[in-house]
Amino acid sequence: MPSPTHPRVRIFLRAAIIALFAFAAVVAAEPPKAAPVKIFFDTDMETDCDDAGALAVLHALADRGECEILATVVSVRDPNSAATVDAINAYYGRPNLPLGMVKGAGVLEKSKYVSHIAADFPHRVKSADDVPDATLTYRDVLEKQPDQSVTIVTVGYLTNLKNLLELPAKDGHPSGLDLIQSKVARWVCMGGNFIGSPPQDDLKLGNVNFQRDSASALYVIHHWPVPIVFVGREIGSVPSGLTVGESLAKTPSDNPVRMAYFHYFGAQKSRHVADFVTTLYAVRGLRDYWDIESAGFMDLHPNMTFEWQPATDRHQSYLLKKLRDGQPNDRYIESILDELLTQPPHR
Ligand SMILES: [Ca+2]
Questions:
Q1: 68: left (phi over 0), alpha (psi -120 to 50) or beta
Q2: Of 38, 78, 175, 247, which one has the greatest count of Cβ atoms within 10 A?
Q3: How many whole angstroms from 43 Cα to the centroid of ligand 1?
Q4: Domain edges within the chain
């Protein structure tokens, strides 16, 4: 055996040390991986199929390690909406995610797809009795989370958030307001039309997430105690012109999201992406996708129009569209959403 002072051994040891330092340098140069964003997802999953697509994007982002899905609740009184959410969760390999739905007063609209998905795909929801009150789902999930760690995403009505704000302390549980103040980092809300300068919403444009339960929208937006980011319709719906969904046809027929789009249209077509962009922003932040306006707050009126009023201490913001190479970045955003929408589940 050669001695440690043998020339060949010395050369080998020197090379090994250089390689070790090079490896350490590469590791040190890697940016630290961000912790997954903790998402509580609240959807109407009823009148529009983009809720199904947005939930698919959320699962795809979770499969990439970018977010952790804490719970998925619906802001409507239809158990088939909760069943559809549960079926999509199961398809993506998360069949045990906490569910919730509105109990008591709330929105119930006709849907073109949730009864089909509830009938054709496996899920846990045999009746409304199988789905807890979303208010209690919020309470039970938030209680277990670290302080200021949770991002709430609403892509539907604000009924559940109103009920949470009004939930009293009971049986050793803190009040809903206390939980929001202690556990929630921010709320990302799909709602509003931020048109004009300064923005001033217009009833003619439609603003259904606020209009269909306007009492809840008015109360929540005026009483919410932690930061809000609004994603207006102009970011992912009219008049942005962004659409995705047609490419779901290349995914398997046992994909409930593909079939939600099919039943919505009676064919495999694309739909606007209002709920998608809200979800993507909640997980990835601005990146090179959007800009943001932060100095102000939404002064919402009982008729659901609003003005954006100047302020520096209200912690409210709204997304702004961004150019890419001097042009609208709509096709760029669509390509990102399309890739996530059609990404096979990791399971
Ligand atoms: Ca929606």
A1: beta
A2: 78
A3: 6
A4: 1-30, 37-341
Model's pTM, two decimal places?
0.91
Q: How far is the CA of 154 from the centre of ligand 1 (A)?
A: 8
Distance CA 153, CA 45 (A): 13
Residue 9 C-alpha to ligand 1 middle, in angstroms?
Answer: 67
Q: Residues 232, 191: contact at Cβ < 8 Å?
A: yes
Q: What percent of the chain has pLDDT over 90?
A: 85
Give tens-digit pLDDT for 81-119: 999 999 999 999 999 999 999 999 999 999 999 999 999
Q: What is the DSSP string of 234-262?
A: HHHSTTT--EE-GGGGGS-TT-HHHHHHH
Assess contact for 257 and 60: CB atoms under 8 A: no
pLDDT tops 50 at residue 252 = yes
- Locate all alpha helices (DSSP H) within the chain, ordered by sequence: 7-29, 50-63, 79-91, 114-120, 134-143, 159-165, 176-183, 208-211, 214-223, 233-236, 256-265, 274-284, 330-341
Give the burial class of 275: count Cβ atoms within 10 A of its Cβ; 0-12 exposed, 13-18 middle, 19 or more buried.
buried
Fold topology of 37-341: Inosine-uridine Nucleoside N-ribohydrolase; Chain A (3.90.245)
Whether residue 2 is preceded by a cis peptide bond, meaning omega within 30 degrees of 0, is no
Ligand 1 centroid distance, CA of 321 (Å): 20
Quote the tokens at residue 189: 């809300």
Residue 135 Cα to ligand 1 midpoint, Å, equals: 18
